[in-house]
Structures are given as structure tokens and as C-alpha cells.
Amino acid sequence: MAAVSQLQRQFIEYTTSLYNEGYLDDQFTQLQKLQDESNPEFVVEVVSLFFEDSEKLLNNLATALQQKIVDYKQVDSHVHQFKGSSSSIGAQRVTNVCVHFRNYCEEKNLDGCLRCLQQVKHEYILVRNKLEALFRLEQQILQAGGSIPMME
Amino acid sequence: MEDDNAEDMEVEILSSMWPEDIDAAGKKFNVEKPGVGQDLLENLTFNEEPSIVDFKRLLELTNYSEKGSSQLSYLVKNWEWKQENAVRLLREELENLRKQQHGFELKKLKILEEHRFEDDNYGGDKRPISILDEVYEIFQDVPKRRSDVIVQDERLEIEDEYDINTVKYWKQRALHLETLLNTSVQREQILLEKLEESIEKLEKQSSPVEELSQILKRADNFLHFVLQNAPVVIGHQDKELRYRFIYNHFPSLREEDIIGKTDVEIFKGGGVKESQDFKREVLEKGIPGKREITFETELFGAKTFLIYVEPVFSKAGETIGVNYMGMEITDQVRRREKMAKLREEIAVQKARETELNKTIHITEETMRAKQMLATMSHEIRSPLSGIISMAEILSTTKLDKDQKQLLSVMLSSSDLVLQLINDILDFSKVESGVMKLEATKFRPREVIKHVLQTAAASLKKMLVLEGHVASDVPIEVIGDVLRIRQILTNLISNAVKFTHEGKIKINLYVIAEPCPKDQKKHENNEPQSHETVVWIRCDVQDTGIGIPETALPSLFKKYMQAGADTARKYGGTGLGLAICKQLVELMGGRLTVASKVDHGSTFTYVLPHKVPLACDSSDETDEFHDGDDNASMEEEEEEDDVNCGFFQFKTRTLGSLFGSNGSGPTHELTRNEVGFDKPDRFGVPVETSSKCNLENSNTDRMSLDQDRPFHDPCIQKNRPSKTNMMRVESTTTASKSSVRPKILLVEDHVVNVMVAKRMMRQLNQDMDVVNNGVEALRAVHRCDYSLILMDVCMPVMDGLQATRLIRSYEKYGNWDEARLAGVDLHDQISKEPRKRIPIIAMTANAMSESAEECFANGMDSFITKPVTLQNLKQCLEQYLPSL
């Protein structure tokens, strides 16, 4: 039981730090609130979907920006999607980079776009690692028989 | 008589010329010269005039030289001749006078005799004859007595003939004649006196040497005066080139220092020998000459002299020495040299200027040409991409076999043109220095793998593609991965093009730095102390047709291919290798080739790469640098991939081989088997089989546009339980109960859909989901909804247009406008008046402008993304009052 409470404490601390460091915002809390007994895996599912989608988008972006004729409209639509999905799960740092990214798209600034792509990848990987860690922690808590503490 | 007269005339004319002639000849000899030989004298005087000044000098100085002595003797002879002539003339005159006197005496005697016989007849009848007087007057002036006498004589005779009548007359006449005779005698006396006086005078003047020497002295003085101030050295040297005479010699030297010595004995230093040799040359050849000689002597330092040397000949015609004249022209030479230098500089400057102008001109031309090329390429590119995309779209429509084939040719041709234009653009970018290199971290192994994958994906023949990466190649290096991929892709596609069977191999390994330091050209890489540079060599080896040796030198030139027939047979722009070479060189490396006809070619590039610190890579190792979406999230597999040194790809099947030719490669490629079936991993695609290797980002991109994930049967099949809810439930909506308000979500994004759906579930609402505007129209067409949540930005048809069309339908009851927009919907038989469905926009940009746009297009409200439960709830409460 002590192990569980320690894990729970760790979970809270970690989640708090994620919010404090701006990796996540309230939208993530929203997701967590949407999860209930009937949908115990909802957050993980959504986030997994986000990961899958993000990776595709990042690939698409990388490919689009590698083209000899960069189709900025297409890039922009990818970024737009990325922005949408990241904001939907509350990955706010990714969302923020996407905002800049779209500006560069509008300017058709290839250098800026490529820089943003690197940045957004970086942010994405960070948040992915964080979320994966968070989910592992959740798993551990659940496996240890505890319940996930609710964040307010 | 007549003859006499004529003679008289002639003589008179001559005599009148005399004084003038003498005047013209100069008044050196104040001697009255007789007319005879006048011409000779005149000539001589004229001839001698310029050399007279030399006379004494030559007499003194060069009495042994031929020229001098001849001149001297000439002058003496001349003078002697003149004197002789004068004496002779005088004598002749004297003789004449004597004859006249004798004649007169004879006449006198005769007259006296006559008088004796005819005394009376002769008495006092004499008239004075004025003519004689006149004659005498002339006589006084001009010493021409002979003729005068003759004239007188004649007249006398004439008179004789006239007056012989009376004795008286004759007596008178006799008397008169006597007086005349007396006067004549008197005159004769006077004349004699005069003659004597003249002779005396002549004798007085007869030593012209004195006068000449005076003249010469004056001339000499003048010469001295001139020469003393003239910067000219004048000298005479004998046969042995010993100075016999020198004028204006160097002041510090005494006469005895010079006379009797040669140049070499007097001076020491540069130029002395040369001048001596020159003098000797003149002496030997006997031809005068001029030469500039620069002396460098202790005595007077560095000085340039213009030297004139002329040979002196003896009477016998042999050279007995040289006359030497020297003038110091150091300053002039210096000035001249300066001038020459200046002129040369000016010429060089001018040449450079013209060269520069030419270069500028050429550069401008080139720039303009390049600019034009770039502009043209751009201009061509945009319509071309239009053609290509239209053709691609066309290829997805229903086409028969022939049409498909035509279309595929069209597509590949336009691809080729696009490639060519891209190459040209790349090339002009590199050439004009616009090309910038990026410095990013990348994994060489992944690059190799991906390039090979890509190549294998489009393989149309049975080939094996292999990649070997040596273990010492770092996992991550820094460089411009895009460019490196471009180079590799180019080399590989070349290899594939020219290889009909066998394998194509990439070898990657680390080599020692080929050329220390100076080749680092990484513009974007700031030198960092913690970074080390590795040189990586890459061999791209094929077993193709090879390149003949003769074609190797031009291989990397623009628009060059190994041979004309090669170009015809294999196509291509001929720019690829040139670009590769330029890119490699831009990155500070080298690209070389080795080839053997029928055995294959090996292209090798060597590039410097920086190696990042190991710890850098820990957190952000991202598989996406390559766009390689198959790279695994599986940590173990990732590790494998990172360290794997060997990749092999083969052409898959003949089926895919031909299939990929046609309507698009996507259909032949199996999608990733993606699933959530591994609960302990977080739903990332897992590379499950090696055939997935053949998938590449290009095809993936296309597939994403055409096959939205929700319609992808593959995905749906693999996610049986969890993705079902997201499917478009258009088929089932009709059977749903109409009790509950129907909500339609129009949203293309997976995550958003999932979240929204979940929220609706939370709010206890059921919801249909479609992915774009067109689908929304169809859904609206199919059944009634109470509320539509409409994303604004969507593919195919955006939310704004969809809303507009729905509003139009609501207004007119038909889908005419939708049909105009290309959406084919059948008009339904009119039901009851259509309700206005509330449409809520979901926008990502919360900007007012976009809100206005939403309202303008007939939307009722909007909620900003990300949609929160709260927002959604409010919205539903507002627009679904039945809740």
C-alpha cells in the first residue's frame, strides 16, 4: 500500500510538473475527465491516436518540405491538423510551435518551416516521452492495485 | 666691225657681273678679279665656305689625317689659284695697255707723216669727240681697256674718213689730236699709276693667311665658347684607342691622365669595357656609330652616355683612329625609362580595364542568363505542376487500358521535365552561391537504408540493392542530410538506370582526413571545440554497363552524358552528376568515379562530417529525420536499426513491378499493420515485416491524401473494436431512432473526432461523423440533423462551402448549387419546408475575422478548438432546446 501511495504521489508530482512546465494544459484535464469506468482507456486511446497521427503528420511534413517545390498549402494543412490534434489533447507546447510554423508557411519561408519542423518534432518527442512515462506510472499504479488520483 | 661689237657686248655683260659675284662670294678677298675663270672661282668659294672654320683647327690637330690634309691642300691650292688668276689678269691688262700705247704711238707717227704731206688739208678742222670722254669715264670705273681702245680707234678712223678735206682742217686736227694724245698719255700715266697702286694694294692684300687665321680664330673662339658650355666630351683616339686629344674631359682628371691612355686604363667599372669595345668595333668596321652606354664608375658614379664614334681615315684610306663624342643623358634616360614605365603601366591598366569591362560584361550577361533561367524554370514549374497534379487526379478516375497507358507516359514525361527544371534550378542555385547548407544531426545508416528503400520501391528490374555501413561510422553525424540524400539518390538512380542485372551496393566507411583542414567548408557549422570531424567515404558500386574511359573527363560536366547514344537510350538530363559533384564540393568533399566498361562503375564521395556529442542524441533521437515512418518505436528494434550495418532490398515481385507503373504506387503497397493490440505499448506503428521496408514517404504522402485513415479498410480491419465508433455510420443512421436529436460532426481529424465523440458520449448524445464538406452534404442529403458541428478547414470541401451549400439547399430545396460545385446529389421529392439546421463552426483560429467569415457563410455560431466539454455542453444547450 505504501508503494501505491508513493506511486500516486509520484504521479501527482509528475503531472503537476507537466502542467507547470507547459507540456500539458487544461485540455488534457478535460480528457481525463472524459474517462470513466465505461471508457477506462480513453485518455490512452486518444493520446495513442494522437501519437499515430502526429507521426504521420511529421513524416508528411518532412516529405513535403523536402520536395523541390514545397507546397506550402499542403504543409499548412498538415500543420493545421497537427495544431488541432495537439490542442485537442492539450499538448500545448506542440500547439504553440504549430502557430509559429503556420506563420512561416504563410510567408513561404522554407528555412523557418524547416526550423519549425525540427522544433515541433522536438516538442512532440518530449511530450510523447512525458506522456508515455505518465502512462507507465498509471499502469504501475493500476497494477499495484491503486487508483489514479484525479487532478484538479 | 660687227664681230667686234658683239664681242664687246659679251665682255661688257660679264664685266658688269663681277662685283656682284664677288660680293656674293664674301668679301674676304677685296681683289678685283678679271672675268675669265669667274665661274670656277665662284664655285670654289661656295664650296669652301662651311669648312673654313675647320681650317685652322684641322691644320693644327689633324694634319696627319687624310681628310684634314686634303681639305687644307684644297684650300691652299684654291688660294694660290686665285692669286695667280689675279696676277694673270693684271698682266693681261698691262699688256693690253702697252699695246694700246704702242698703237697710239704708231698712229701718232702716221698722222704726223700724213700731216707732213697734207698739212693744209689737215689744218684745224678737228671737232671734239665726246665719245672718247665717255669711254674714258667708263674706263675709270671699269678696267676694260682693250675694247675701249678699240672703239676709240674705230671712231678715229671713221672720223679720218670723214675729215680729210682741208689742210687747215687737218692741221687743226693734228693739233687737236696732239692734245688728245697728250691727254691720252696723261691718262695712260694715271692708269699706270693706278695699276701700280693696284698692284701694290694687291701685294698688301696678298697674304690672306693672316685674314683666314683671324677668321678661324674667331670661329675657334666661338667653338670654344660653345663647347665649353656644352655637355659634350669630344676626343680623338688613335688606332690603339689611346686618347690623342680630348675636350671637356672629366674635371678631376688632368690632361696627362688622359692623353696617351685608353678608356680602360683611365676608368674602372661597368660600361668602360663596353665603350672601348664599341670604339674598337667602329675602328675595325670603319663605319660610324652611336650607342648608349651606362657607366658605373668610381669616378662619376652611375651615368649614361650617348656616344658617337666615327672613324678617321688616313690619306691612304686606312683607319688611324676614331673621333669620339659623348653626351651625358642620365636624366633623359631616367625620364625616358620612367615614361616607358608609365606608358607600360598605362597600357597594362588599360588592358586590365578592358579585361575587367569584359569580365563585368560577361558576368552581367551570365547573371542575367542565370536569372532568366531561374525565372523561366520557376515560370515553367508552376504550370507543369498543374499538369502533373491534374494528370495524377485523372489517373485515379475511371480509365480504360489505353487511356491509362497514355496517361502513364504523360506522367512520366512530365516528371522528367519537372526533374530537369528542378535540376537546372538547383544548378543555378549552386553556381550563383545561393545554395545554403544545413547542418543537422542525422543517422547515416538510416539515410542509406531509406535511400535504398526508395530506390527499391520504384525498381522495375530484378536487382539487389545492398548497403554496408562499417561499424566505425558514427551513429549520428552532422551535415546537410537533404543534400546528402539528394546525392545518394542521384547516384543510386544512376546506378539503377545503367545496371540491368546484378547488384548495387553502397559502402560507407570512415577514412583518414584526406586533406587536412583546408577543405572544411561547412558554412553553417560554427567551429565547436567538442565536435570532432570524421571523413566518411561512400562508394556506390554497380555492375552495370560501365563508362568508357574517354567519357570519364566530361562525366561531371553539365548536360553531358557518356555518349549521344547513351542519352538516347537511357534519357536523363545530364545534370545529375554535375549537381552531385557541385554539392559534394560545396560540402567540402570530393566526388570521383572509377569505371570499367561492361563491369560496372563505382562512384565515390568523401565528405567531412562533424560528430555530435554522444549525450546530445539521447533525448531527441528522432526517427523522422529521414521521413522514415517505419522506423520503430520499439526500443530494441530501434537499437538494432541504429547499429545495423547491412541492408538488403530486392525487387519484390513482378506483379508489383508492373503494377507500380500504372495508376499509382499506393495501391500496391500494403499499409502498415497498425494496431492497439499491444497494451503495454502506446499505439505506435510497429514494423512487423520486412516488406514494409518498401514503403516510402512519398507513397505514404499520397496515400494520406487519398485514403483518409477512416476510410482505409486496412485500418478499420485492424482496429475492430475501437475504431468502429468512428466510422461514418451513414448506412445505419436511417435506422436510428429519431427521438434523440441528431448531431452531425464534420471533422477530418482523428484525434479531434475521438475527443468530440467522447465528449458527446459524456453528454449522452449520439453523433454521426463525416470527414469533409462533401460527405457532410451527402449526410444532410440523407437524413435530417438537429445540429451540425462543422470544422472549417477540411480537405475536399471546407466547412464554409459546405455550410453555404446546405443553406442553399435549405432555401431552394434543391442541390443545384452543390451540383455546380461538383457534388452530385439527387434532389428529393419535396417534403415539408426544410428547417434551418443550426451549424456551429469549429475553428482553430479564434480570430474575429474568421468568425465573421463563419457568419457570412451562414453559420450560426462557433466554438473554438480545442473543444472543451463545457463549450460543447453550452452549445448543445443553446441549440438543442429539447435537451
User: Spatial order of the strands in the main sheet of chain B?
Assistant: 2-1-6-5-4-3
Helix content of chain B: 40-55%
Query: Largest protein interface?
Result: A-B, 50 and 51 residues
CA-CA gap between termini of chain A: 23 Å
Envelope shape of chain A: elongated
Low-confidence stretches of chain B: 1-55, 121-154, 517-529, 615-639, 653-738
Straight-line distance between termini of chain B: 179 Å
The pLDDT mean of chain B sits at 70
Sheet with most strands of chain A: none
Parts with pLDDT < 50 across at least 5 consecutive residues of chain A: none
The radius of gyration of chain A is: 17 Å
Largest sheet of chain B: 6 strands, antiparallel
**Cα gyration radius of chain B (Å):** 66 Å
Give me the count of strands of chain B.
Answer: 19
Number of helices of chain A: 6
